[in-house]
From TrEMBL:
Bias (Low complexity) ranges: 1-27, 197-223
Location of the region described as Disordered in the Swiss-Prot/TrEMBL record: 1-66, 160-179, 187-233, 351-380
GO BP term, example: adenylate cyclase-modulating G protein-coupled receptor signaling pathway
Name the record gives this protein: G-alpha-domain-containing protein
Domain of life of the native organism: Eukaryota
GO cellular component, as recorded: cytoplasm; heterotrimeric G-protein complex
Length: 627
């Protein structure tokens, strides 16, 4: 007798595969209850002596199970649709140049996007190499200048490293670069900008520190000599002449790397970098320097409301050196504007080569040629640097050179992208940057770069995050406001170790003061009244080093007063309060104050901070969606 097999049991599939499986799984499988050859047939087929009541009961049970299954399917479908619709969390990183925005973003990438991080690793080699070349060439520049100066004064006397010499003219014309001899001034005039790379930490004055508030100078101080004493003569010899000669190829290498990396590799030119900071134009700079989207400035200061000028450049110079279109938020794109997602990051940027590699019209063949050329150039660069390893080491460790740099008060070690202490590891043919190298590498951000992160685990599964990293130099700040109106959160970086430094692009402005004004403007901005603001008081490691070295905070911030201790705890407490007060005073409506003391080159500590920050932002985001 043939068995009457009634309805196919989808519930079977659910329970067999662990429950909750979707119907497409169940229907895709052959139903064992209908196939007498199936090993499960005996378990699932109805008993041969089934009574009508039993059959009715069984069919009801099956129908109920089917219903439950269908409901689960519907729920899953709805969940998937909701996931697709989940609004991305948007976070904007703000702060002056060299405040640590890109470094913070790298930390996010390192913690939450390991795959992309690994893929980009080798692309960072060029940046680290450039940083190394710059430091070396900067020392060579100073060496050349000092040798010319000493040579002009007298012929070197034999014996001993140092002899007494009159104070060179640099002391009477202090500058924040630490480079201000007539030769340098001439070079600056020719190059149209600063001779020294502003990415190096330099105090307000090389040999004559002065308070940013008083504007006055103190007497010349140089390590080991009493204030006001004539500076000892630096005794250069053939070794230095030889080093200059042998390290000559590094200038070409630097130029090549700069061309390959593009404008992000260049430093701001003070004369072009925007107007002086005023209360009215905190995001100041020439708005026409960038082609921004149409103005959404609203209540923004006048300098910002000129955005959208058609005379401006219509692209950002990206890390690959090509001028790629200016990134414009999709909602604000004008008719003929197009944009490029920078989410592909540095790797893609570095792989592409100018001119053929980056051009939209370039053929596959041209791109291939460009790529090969790029690889050949990279090999050549690495070879030259490796050949210079010993000489770079000899230059950096030379006692006369050390004294020379100390006189200039040029603290290369404290600046971004300092790798001279790692020369034996980096100047080798098979160099691969470590995580730490990548985090410490310095490449200025031009325009606005968008990064995407997709969280895959836990409550954030499927949640997309968009992070925007902006250029912090004055002239690039005009590009910020168009991103203000739909951000969930802003991470604002204020580098607090910079209390004794001036802005590279405007030597009249103290860097801490600049951060204060920017913070005030961000807090006061009406478009941001509901945006969560998270403040990172960054570069605490450098702050500690500076205070321990005896630099007095109160000399630069008189309101700190003489009673407080000149230590990290007192200074950070004071600064926290100042920033908090500003947020309270200037925010259009009450807002919470979130602050973290950070050293974002410390990846372990930063990972912990970022977990707290991420959870805070997400909670706020979910709350906003609920109400
Ligand atoms: N010692 C120390 N160095 C830091 C810290 N944060 C950033 N840096 C270094 O400072 C340099 C500048 O940091 P970036 O993240 O490139 O600065 P940015 O704000 O993105 O600068 P722009 O792109 O010019 O706007 C980098 O070489 C970093 O490694 C910190 O907390 N401590
Ligand atoms: Mg940056």
């Amino acid at each position: 007798m043939a068995r009457t097999v009634t309805s196919p049991t989808t519930s079977f599939t659910s329970s067999f595969l662990g429950g909750g499986t979707t119907s497409h799984t169940s229907t895709a499988l052959p139903n064992p209850a209908t196939n007498p050859d199936d090993p499960f047939y005996a378990f699932l087929a109805p008993p041969p002596d089934e009574t009508p009541e039993q059959r009715a009961a069984r069919e009801k049970k099956e129908a109920d199970a089917r219903k439950v299954n269908d409901e689960i399917d519907e729920m899953l479908k709805a969940e998937r649709a909701a996931l697709k619709k989940k609004k991305a969390v948007k976070v904007l990183l703000l702060g002056q140049s060299e405040s640590g925005k890109s470094t913070t973003l790298k930390n996010f990438q390192l913690t939450y996007a390991r795959k992309a991080w690994q893929e980009e690793r080798s692309a960072w080699r060029a940046v680290v190499q450039l940083n190394l070349c710059r430091s070396t060439n900067l020392i060579l520049d100073i060496l050349t200048e000092e040798m010319a100066f000493e040579g002009a004064l007298s012929t070197p006397s034999p014996g001993g490293l140092i002899a007494n010499t009159p104070v060179p003219p640099t002391t009477s014309a202090p500058s924040s670069t630490g480079l201000h001899t007539p030769e340098i001034e001439e070079l600056e005039q020719h190059s149209g900008g600063s001779y020294a790379s502003p990415s190096y930490t330099t105090p307000n004055s090389p040999r004559t520190p002065r308070s940013p508030h008083s504007g006055g100078t103190t007497s010349v101080t140089t390590p080991g000599s009493p204030p006001g004493a004539p500076l000892p003569k630096l005794l250069f010899d053939d070794k230095h002449r030889l080093l200059k000669l042998r390290l000559g190829p590094l200038r070409r290498v630097q130029r090549d790397l700069e061309v390959r990396l593009g404008a992000g590799a260049e430093e701001p030119i003070p004369a072009l970098a925007g107007a002086a900071m005023t209360e009215a134009a905190p995001f100041g700079g020439s708005a026409s320097a960038l082609a921004g989207p149409s103005s959404s400035a609203g209540a923004l200061p006048a300098a910002m409301s000129t955005l959208g000028s058609s005379s401006a450049i219509t692209g950002n110079v990206q890390a690959n050196g090509s001028v790629t279109p200016y990134f414009v938020p999709p909602s604000r794109r004008g008719p003929q504007e197009f944009y490029v997602r920078s989410s592909t990051g540095w790797k893609a940027a570095l792989e592409r080569l100018r001119p053929a590699g980056s051009g939209r019209s370039s053929t596959e063949r041209e791109r291939e040629d460009a790529k090969n050329r790029s690889e050949r150039e990279a090999e050549e660069t690495t070879r030259v640097i490796a050949e210079c390893r010993e000489d770079i080491g000899a230059l950096w460790n030379d006692e006369v050179v050390k004294t020379m740099l100390a006189r200039r008060r040029l603290r290369l070690e404290e600046g971004g992208g300092f790798f001279l202490n790692d020369i034996d590891r980096i100047a080798v043919p098979n160099y691969e940057p470590s995580d730490d190298d990548i985090v410490r590498a310095r490449l200025r951000t031009m325009g606005v770069q968008e990064y995407r992160f997709m969280f895959e685990k836990g409550m954030e599964s499927g949640q997309e995050w968009l992070m925007y990293d902006v250029g912090g130099t004055r002239s690039l700040r005009a590009a910020w406001p168009p991103f203000f109106d739909d951000m969930n959160a802003i991470i604002f970086l204020a580098p607090i170790s910079c209390f004794d430094e001036k802005l590279a692009e405007d030597r009249r402005v103290n860097r801490l003061e600049d951060s204060f004004l920017l913070w005030k403007a961000v807090c006061a901005n009406k478009l941001l009244r509901k945006t969560m603001l998270i403040l990172f008081l960054n570069k605490c490691d450098l702050l500690e080093r500076k205070l321990n070295a005896g630099v007095e905070f109160k000399h630069y911030v008189p309101s700190f007063g003489g009673e407080r201790k000149n230590d990290v705890a007192s200074v950070t407490k004071y600064l926290k309060q100042k920033f908090r007060d500003m947020s309270k005073q200037h925010s259009p409506q009450p807002r919470s104050f979130f602050v973290h003391l950070t050293s974002v080159i410390d990846t372990k500590a930063t990972a912990i901070t970022l977990t707290a920050v991420r959870e805070g932002i997400l909670r706020d985001h979910l709350r906003a969606r609920m109400f």
